[in-house]
């Protein structure tokens, strides 16, 4: 199961971002290139496990976009992208994003009270990004019916579960200077 994802992760190169060992992979970076068969394997799997009885798929710029696009085409559900730049539309919600290697702001538009949403993202590491997003969506009054992330590393998911956030992931990996290994 998820053979293409596992095989490709084992080949992922590592670069240093400060202290952080950053793996480079087609799903998390679009580098070197994302093969349709890999995207299809992953999105078919997401369709099997996710609650797709939702009004909107929600994904974070940039690498949530291919996942949301493929899922939207398969399900007919529209998607909204949480952007890294402001639009200054009425009701725009701004949140701070902090990962293991970066800091910035995210901007939510056009998600309103009562909307049922499925969140998808490529990677979870510290959980900083998703925790901020889910908290903001709950504040808006949207119902987060499900949160699915393709690749899990680090302690973010465990930390989020302790705080009552439910996140499901397709594969959990360890990353060090020698590369990626897959946790069984
Ligand atoms: O669990 P965290 O530590 O918060 O890290 C996870 C986030 O980091 C990556 O986003 P990044 O900001 O690098 O954006 P990208 O999709 O543009 O590469 C990834 O897409 C997640 O959104
Ligand atoms: O190591 C990583 N690689 C790609 N995307 C990521 N998002 C968080 N950590 C990583």
UniProtKB/TrEMBL annotation:
It catalyses: IMP + diphosphate = hypoxanthine + 5-phospho-alpha-D-ribose 1-diphosphate; GMP + diphosphate = guanine + 5-phospho-alpha-D-ribose 1-diphosphate. Residues 40-168 form the Phosphoribosyltransferase domain. It holds the Pfam family Pribosyltran. One of its GO terms (biological process) is IMP salvage. Keywords: Cytoplasm, Glycosyltransferase, Purine salvage, Transferase. Its main location: cytoplasm. PANTHER family: HYPOXANTHINE/GUANINE PHOSPHORIBOSYLTRANSFERASE (PTHR43864), XANTHINE PHOSPHORIBOSYLTRANSFERASE (PTHR43864:SF1). Catalyzes a salvage reaction resulting in the formation of IMP that is energically less costly than de novo synthesis. This is Hypoxanthine/guanine phosphoribosyltransferase. It comes from Methanolobus zinderi. The gene is hpt.
């Amino acid at each position: 199961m998820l053979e293409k994802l596992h095989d490709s992760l084992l080949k992922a190169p590592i670069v240093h971002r400060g202290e952080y060992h950053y793996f480079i992979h087609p799903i998390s970076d679009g580098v070197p290139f994302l093969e349709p068969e890999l995207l299809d394997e992953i999105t078919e799997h997401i369709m099997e496990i996710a609650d797709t009885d939702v009004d909107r798929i929600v994904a974070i710029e940039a690498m949530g976009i291919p996942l949301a696009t493929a899922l939207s085409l398969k399900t007919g559900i529209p998607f909204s992208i949480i952007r890294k730049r402001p639009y200054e539309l009425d009701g725009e919600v701004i949140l701070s994003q902090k990962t293991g290697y970066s800091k910035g702001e995210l901007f939510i538009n056009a998600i309103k009270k009562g909307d049922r949403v499925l969140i998808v993202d490529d990677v979870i590491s510290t959980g900083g990004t998703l925790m901020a997003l889910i908290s903001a969506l709950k504040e808006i009054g949207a119902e987060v019916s499900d949160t699915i992330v393709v690749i899990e590393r680090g302690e973010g998911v465990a930390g989020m579960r302790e705080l009552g956030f439910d996140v499901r992931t397709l594969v959990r990996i360890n990353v060090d200077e020698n590369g990626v290994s897959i946790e069984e």
